[in-house]
Amino acid sequence: MSSRTSAPERPRTSQPAAHGRPRRPRVVSVTLAAVLGLVLAGCGVRVDTPPPTEPSPDAQELVRSAAVTDALTVGATARAAAASLADEGGEDADAVVPLLEQIADFSDQHVVQLGGVYDSGLPDAPEQPDPEATLAVSDGTVTEKPAPTTADVLEALTGASARTRASAIGAEDGGLARLLASVSTSQVLSAERLATVSGVDLPETKVPAEPEVTTTAPPGAAAGDLATLVESEDAAGYAYEVAAARSEGTTRSRSLALAAAHRERAQLLAEAAGIDGSATDPRRVAYALPEGAVADVAQEVELDLATGYASMAGTVLGEGRTPVLDLLTASQRAATTWGAPLVAFPGMPERAGS
Length: 354
Known about the structure:
InterPro entries: DUF4439, Ferritin-like, Ferritin-like_SF. The chain is an all-alpha fold.
């Protein structure tokens, strides 16, 4: 009987053969992480991502938003003061309440044309009640705050006008500068009218009683725009001279004073533009005048000037806007003294009734 000799067993090893399939530790890791994530989710555990941050507004947006905030404040103050005065009554209520309501309406228009409240696109935070909004504490007793007064409205108007005027002077965008100049002018003229009608003292404003015109052209002013204003100012002077010749008493004296003022402005602007006495000097001996009474003609020439200065506010640069804004206010103010109504956007007739 023959015996078989078994072949020796090959030693086992934990190492894979050279031609075997390699391991995939990355796949295992990813799979494990996915499973772990599902487990955590099933247990109600999640990893939060940080909430989106609000984008930072640029310089132009900050200027615009500040003007909107001021307009909202003026509107709310005027509206509350009007309601309070209407409830109280009084001798001046019939005259002051409609003016306060007009100021509130103008402020609403300002907010709309300025673009409204800044929206970052993020959800708004829940509003928190303001315990100081309507209540005041005195000697441990909680009482309602008094309603805004006409004086409060005047403070709000003049403060807003001064800040918006400064923003108009410093604005980099010409279109925004023109709009801010118009809003500021509307606010200060409304304040002047409210002070006159109510008898309440007008707080100090940034607008001089008489604009200062120099023989230096504002930076950025186009020669054609300056020439147009030279002609408009000279035509206004001529119109007032004709009005004086047809009038007497106070109207005559006033017309003569305004004629001299407009002729002087025309001369200074002509020198600033470098066209005084030149072939391109647009001034003429006589001008065609609109039909109508003295007041109607005066309103038309002053409103035409206001439009010209508002347009220039959008083209000149920086501090060069200061005298332009003064002239815009002076022209619009003169128009109102001749009977033109207050408007929300002086010098911007395209926004009338907006």
